[in-house]
Amino acid sequence: MIQKKELRKEIRARKRDIPVEELRDMSRSVCKRLLEEERLRDASTVMMYYPLADEVDVTPVIERLWEEGKTVVLPKVTGETTMVLHRYAGKDDLKVGAFGILEPCGEVFDDYEAIDVAVIPGMAFDSVCHRLGRGKGYYDRFLPLLHARVYKIGVCFPFQLLDSIPTDEHDIAMDAVLSTEFFCPQIITD
Predict the structure, then answer these.
(1) Residue 185 pLDDT
(2) Residue 157 contacts residue 180 (beta carbons within 8 Å)
(3) How many angstroms separate the Cα of 18 from the Cα of each of 12, 55, 82, 125, 182?
(4) For the whole model, what pTM was predicted?
């Protein structure tokens, strides 16, 4: 089986081969499907992420949920392998942080039991909702802190969906994976 490091390199190459506008179109499609997800619609508190340039751009979902009055929390990197959550208070509350990611500056959010849904990026996901991260382990260290009932939705572009990915004991699987063509554990096509 291909090793994680090699797989990350392959996924990065795939991303570079796709025009930026096509990635934007795919992001819009993923966001539309995400907003249709019943668990997200019913959630009061949602953990999201502010995207890197090569990740699904979920900023429209963040804005929509916030405008609807939901509590939206975003991660902020605090160390080499650690992150904490902060309450999102609008675009003006963001500053460039670690890895060039926009991070919230407002109130720290530590009521992890209040989180209903967590939307998580990844380098790749497989048909049984395993996630391959970027390799630093931020989410693998953070996700165990969440309550077991938190519904974890991985989001990605279609070319990041694989039949299987290598996993380790500490890897946290998603409850669902959403892309333009796929919703794990069942496959939904347009």
Answers:
(1) 55
(2) yes
(3) 10, 12, 31, 19, 19
(4) 0.91
